[in-house]
Amino acid sequence: MTTDLSAARTAAYEEFDLLGPLPTGTTVLEASAGTGKTHTIAALVTRYVAEGIATIDEMLVVTFGRMATQELRDRVRGRLVSARDALADPSQAAKAEDPLIRHLAAEDAPARWQRLAHALGSFDTATVATTHEFCRRVLSGLGTAADIDTNITFVDNVDDLTVEVVQDLYLRMWSRPNADAPPMDVKSAIELAKAVVSDHHAQLRPDDGAPNSAADLRFRFARAVREEVERRKRERYLLTFDDLLTRLQKTLDADGSGAIAAARLRQRYKVVLVDEFQDTDPVQWDILRFAFHGHTTLVLIGDPKQAIYAFRGADVHTYLAADEVAEHRRTLGTNWRSDPDLLAGLEALFRGAALGDDRIVVRPVAAGHSGRSLSLPGAPIEIRAVRSRHRRRPSPRRRRGRRRTDRRRASGHWH
């Protein structure tokens, strides 16, 4: 049953019109699977540039992962090329099948063509990057406003350094005569250390264990590992890509210098588009919030139903926190990938369903094409788009019997 809250959240999301007024302020744009997220981003960049809102070097497009970044960069450039080529002949562009081309040709087509041509001529200045790459560029450009040394060496991880620290601390803490017995072996200590170093913004708990209890000793060891790894990184001028995030977060949040750094970013970027925003972690959102929220056009594009990277620090609650402060909420309402029957069946099953949180709901989408993408001529029965099956959980006795049967089959003793 749909709760009052989830119904209200569904109603709060208006369908986004790609040819309507361009987003301003902070906008959360929910894009379910198959609704043309990348197509929308490329079209928005084209519109912002062609309509004179921002030049290509005044736009920031951030996405998740290097491969996704290259694909998005290619898609954006391809959209700019197609729009420029079409507007070379405004009379033909006004009759084009592509609605975006018709929209651009409807007003001041020569000036829009000129802006698109200039954008393509200077496309190398476009910032289409991962969050880490963006942070690296920003910290390098801020100079003395950022706490970063020019002689720094970037590394993917500090696993070797972490093992080195564990070995030193383990011997120091538990190899002395009359020392307490260690609460874990060296292998377990290395696993613990790698976990606390890789997820450096996670809080260590419990921090109030009984003195010298196993929990207290593990906590103190984990804290010591973090501190010593950071000290040796500074000593050796090492920086991981995750460190870039925390450095920029601290720079933007600092008294005095934070306001200066944020002002430089706002002066540089007039429009910011963030792809795959559901995979953003709290530190990344802090950077975007400190720098752009309330000052710059900030479009956050993602789908909380696809938030699957918690193991990398991503937090769907970060998406929900941004949703709470956004001035505008929109959703892409057409699915261009799936058949109408499939969408209708899934809507019947999941309409209004809240997935783990009343603010994460399944919203209705229309089909972008009719008919079926897969047909089987001469099929004796109709193939239904969605079928549900209910299976009862077998009793413990039946489960044990199945496991014995599986073991006999695997060992070859099956007759």
UniProtKB/TrEMBL annotation:
Residues annotated to bind ATP: A31, S32, A33, G34, T35, G36, K37, T38
Residue span of region Disordered: 386-415
Superkingdom of origin: Bacteria
Domain UvrD-like helicase ATP-binding: 10-339
Keywords: ATP-binding, Helicase, Hydrolase, Nucleotide-binding
Keyword Nucleotide-binding in annotation: yes
Protein name according to UniProt: UvrD-helicase domain-containing protein
Family annotation (SUPFAM superfamilies): P-loop containing nucleoside triphosphate hydrolases
